[in-house]
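User: I'm putting together a teaching handout on how multi-component assemblies are represented. Below are the sequence lines for each component of a complex, exactly as they appear in our records. Could you produce the 3D structure of the whole assembly as structure tokens, so the students can see both representations side by side? Please keep the chain order the same as the input.
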Amino acid sequence: MPVSTEVERETVERARRGDQQALADIYDWYLPRVYRYVLSRVGNVVEAEDLTEDIFVRMLGAISGHRERNIPFSAWLFRIAHNHIMSYFRKAGSRGTRDILDEAIADSRPDPATAVETRLTMEEVVRATRDLPEAQREVIALRFAVGLSVAETAQVLGKREGNVKALQHKAVARLQRLLGAKPGRLAAEV
Amino acid sequence: MRSRFHEHLNECLEALASGQRTLEDCLAKYPKEADRLEPLLRTALSIKGTLSVEPREEFRAAARRRFVASSGKSLAEALREGPRPSFVKAARERFLAAAQRMVGVGPSREWRPFPQGVIAIHARPLATALATAFLLFIGFGTFAVTTSGSALPGDWRYPVKRFTEDVRLTLAFSDAAERSVKIDLAKERLSEIQEMAEKGRPIGGDLLDDLRGETGSLASNLDESGLDAGKVREVADLARHQDEVLAQVEPLVKPDAQENLVAARTASQETYAKAAQVYALALFSEKSGKGEKVPGVEVSESPEEEATEVPSVAVVPTEEGTGVEPSPEPDTPVPESEPVISIERGSLPEEGTTGLSWDRVVIGRFSMVVPSEADGWRIMDLGFGSDDTAPAPNLLRITNAEDTAIIVINPRNGDTFWYQYKDGLFEDFIVRVTAGDDMYEADLPALEGFYAPYAAMVLFMVESITIEPPPTPTPVPSETPVPPPAGTATIAAEGLVPGAPTATPLP
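Assistant: Of course. Below is the structure of the complete assembly, with chains in the same order as your input.
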């Protein structure tokens, strides 16, 4: 649920002081977005759920120091998420990640029937994004799964806004070529 | 212009996301770009729709309960007054892990001499456990501790050795100290593996997993800021050495531990790749950009050493690009103003120049073209003012958006070095370098063999370099003609001095 910047700032400040209701509010606001980000990166519901929980626990351990950082809370939180996912991929690289996209993904969409008819599947998107360079993958996840602005995405990744726009353009163009074999789907989407 | 298209694409995406415009509105606003915009916007919208999933309700509820429950406990600890809260929490966890390890040893042979009550007491509160650990460390365990340093897995003293390591890690009070201890621990695991191999002992999965864990911990620390380049280099060297040792000891690895070996080698390779990249970035940090050597790093072949010295000969390509000549020695120094770097945006058309758009960089008498930000390249660490000028750096550093390539140019003499992360390895390549009175450039085939996608681009940059001669005082009329100075440098039309060595990748 979107909240104003002022409300969020005030809630984060209370959370820093240990207010559990404020922490719960932050959790409720951000859980779906963190989950979408993680799922779009790992492509597996079970691992996405585990990693999402880990990220919030990490946030708990770090939130008392947030005030000192000159960065909006959302960018700060997704930087934690980004670092955690990078760490996960490093560890998972040696043992192999699960590559099965659960039925739960499709079931969780608002309109599964429409999804089958007109939308790309999550599996198609995740597989296609795996062919992108890492930086482009991150931009796709943060811009389209999370819905961060270009400025926020730049803050999470430590890049300039111009670079993020360039990466976004390259990524979308590449995905259009990779996924473009189904023009009917793409055309029907809009 | 490509950059305008990025902007228009992004503007449309933002407008569509906020509901301010429809797809048709966007296409109508940019009719000349509509054909290019439409498929990209449709793709982006489709991806966005696909990624708009919600977590399962049962997960959401259960995870929320766990989060709220843990938040009170964690914050109570984190907000404790006294030392830095994050330190208190981390140190406490490390201590308890160490204590748990000792409890986990249980009534095994090596712990029998200790009173059972002492072991059981570790389940008590922190202060008691800490005191007990120190008693064990200092008192009862003195013999075992002092003689356990050379213990190998399977030795009776080995658990003591590991326990003392945990205590050492627990007592590392600063981040830097903790990093140093972790490096030592990774070296110790590797040393144990080497020693077991020398003694012909089979190597089990547990030891390999421990090595992998220590290596992974080092890799995680590389994400932290403020790392000393020397330490990063140490991690890179260690990780590479690990992989070599693991390859050598493979015949002695137990059959059921082959997967552990693969995992340990992968961790070593990944850590090396990451450390090498962080190391290169540290080398070219602002500190080195000002001509200071990075502590603990040998930089004999790296460009920052060049940056500390003004070359004795100024390289001055002629208009034909076929010759350079030493600059005349002025009779009196000519003061030059503080150099600035300025950018002329879009100085070259896209066509015919590897499909990129180009900006021209001018630093004092130095000039070259660089790929533009619109194509994902940027000059590092510069804060331009509104007039596109900034104080000139000693080294011009250009990186791509993916952070996989760094091109470093010395604007004093045009020496160019290219650092490229590729296939898990970080390699460096001299593209142009002055040596004495000669100047060498790599040729296209040599570069293409390694980095085909970027080779033409980097060569185009290098070939655009010009360095104007320094201002000279009014020459004193002389009746005797001055002969040309010896050692005039030459550059072949294709960028190679005939018979001169082609630049090759450094090992």
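A couple of points students might notice: Chain B has three domains: 2-51, 69-287, 315-329+336-467. Residues 2-51 of chain B form one domain.
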